[in-house]
Each structure stands twice: as C-alpha cells, then as structure tokens.
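Quick log. Single chain, no ligands specified.
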Amino acid sequence: MNKIVEDYLVKLDQKELSNRDAFLIENGFFEKVYSETNEYSSEFPFNDNEQDKFFKKIAIEVTDDEYKKIYNSLEHKEKNSVSTLIFIIAIIIYIGGFLAGASLANAPSEYYGNTFNISVAIIYWAFAFICGSILLGLSEIIKLLHKIANK
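-> predicted structure:
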C-alpha cells in the first residue's frame, strides 16, 4: 500500500476512535482515572466530590457491535436546535392565528355590528394554517437532513 494512503487511513482511524470515545464519555460510558497528586490539572479536570479527588474520564472498552447498539439506542436523544425552534414557531403561529382570527372576527364594526364575521376569521385561520404548515414542513426537512448527515 502506498505510504501516503496508509498514513491517511491511520489518521482517519484515529479520528474515528476519538469521536467514538467522545460519544461514549458524553453519554456516561466512562471510567474515572484519579490523579496521583490529587491536584487540578488540564489532564485531570473533573472533581469527584464524594472522594474529593480530581479525575479524568476514560471511555470504556466496547466492541463494534456494542457501540452500534449504544449509538442507535441513544440516537433519538440527539437534538437539532434549529429544527426545534422552527417547530415551536410553527405551533405559536397556529395558536396565534386561531386566536387572532377569533378575536378580530368578533370585534365590533360599523358594517357588521357586534356579530361574528366568519370571513375575517377564515382569512386569519387560513393564513396561520399555511404559514404554520410551511414552517412545520421545514422543521421536518431539517430533522431528516440532520439525521442523514449523522449517519
């Protein structure tokens, strides 16, 4: 094998192992290795309050199959803040549009008097439905793209 290709593949494997270890540690699959000097350092940044010692987190050894199972079971916890924000805005538009339509259609006017004006309500409700649905669809598209990108 070519030396350049071999070096690249070694770096790629190291990066993949580093990402794997970070994922395991982030999700609580780690062991604590305590400092011998019991002093804070960049190598031992965490403090165990129960034992009053500083430690570092080391990812536990797992097989490839175990890692895949862990990753797949925790995949649903991965959140996309942009998608969530757009989803919340869509819900607010649905609720706000319904309330605005009902409120403004009930407002007294010279032409209709104090009766409920259904045409005004339908305009607001349709606008809220269309805008909210577009944002809801955009939110779902972003979620799916995020899921595809993380495969």
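The first strand starts at residue 30 and ends at 34.
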